[in-house]
Amino acid sequence: MRPALLLICTALLCCGTALAEWPHNNPKLTAKKVTIRRVVLLPAHVSFIRVGTRGSEGGLPEADQIAGSFDSAVSHELSARGVEVLAHGAASDEEKYAIADLQARYDSVAVQVRRKPGKVEKGAYTLGDRVAAFQPAASADAIVVLRGFGQTYTTGRKVMAAATWNVFGIKGVFRGELALIDSRTGEVLSFVRFQRQQNMAEKAEERIAEAVRLALHDVPLPLPPPKK
Question: Rounded to whole angstroms, what are the CA distances from 207 to 42, 75, 178?
Answer without folding.
Answer: 21, 15, 16
